[in-house]
Design goal:
- This protein has about 150 residues and is of the alpha+beta class.
- A hairpin with a 2-residue loop joins strand 5 and strand 6.
- It is globular, with a radius of gyration of 14 Å.
- Helices cover about 15% and strands about 20% of the residues.
- Strands 1, 4, 7, 8 and 9 form a 5-stranded mixed sheet that branches. The chain has a two-stranded antiparallel sheet with strand order 2-3. It has a two-stranded antiparallel ribbon with strand order 5-6.
- The N terminus is likely disordered.
- The chain is built from 2 helices and 9 strands.
């Protein structure tokens, strides 16, 4: 199971540990048969939130499958996740104008060299990226990747 955890700027208060129901990208619909779940974390230091998210995902399970932060490995997977993004005012929290979530990519081992934290792609470099112009920029020494929608 992939568990996608939400993170937010320190000024944004979110409902702690609120979650939406898991959903699957089935192979019969062109997917990878992985399960996903959006989980909201409280606001705070982004690096601390990333380590909390990683620990929470690693300790989770669903239908006997272990959890990990999402690894987005294709444009199709990104499109699928975009279509399921809960959005403002959803049951997962109060997102206001913030539309981003933490995924399992990091450059904490070597600055500028991004790899997946865990899951089937764990330790491998990112083969698919869709960086926003000007990213990655290491603003504030950030070491974790968020997806914006």
């Amino acid at each position: 199971m992939k568990r996608i955890l939400l993170t937010a700027a320190a000024s944004l208060a979110m409902i702690s540990s609120a979650a939406a129901a898991p959903f699957q990208w089935s192979a019969r619909s062109g997917g990878n048969d992985h399960w996903y779940e959006f989980v909201a974390l409280g606001s705070g230091d982004p690096s601390l939130m990333a380590t909390q998210a990683e620990a929470l995902a690693g300790s989770s399970s669903f239908m006997g499958l272990g959890g990990y932060l999402a690894t987005i490995t294709s444009a199709a997977e990104q499109t699928f996740l975009n279509s399921h993004w809960p959005g403002a005012g959803s049951v997962t929290g109060q997102f206001l104008d913030y539309s981003f979530f933490l995924i399992g990519a990091t450059d904490r081992n070597t600055e500028g060299s991004f790899e997946w934290l865990d899951g089937p792609e764990g330790g491998n470099p990112l083969a698919y990226t869709n960086w926003k112009p000007g990213e990655p920029n290491n603003e504030g020494g950030e070491d974790y990747v968020v997806a914006w929608w």
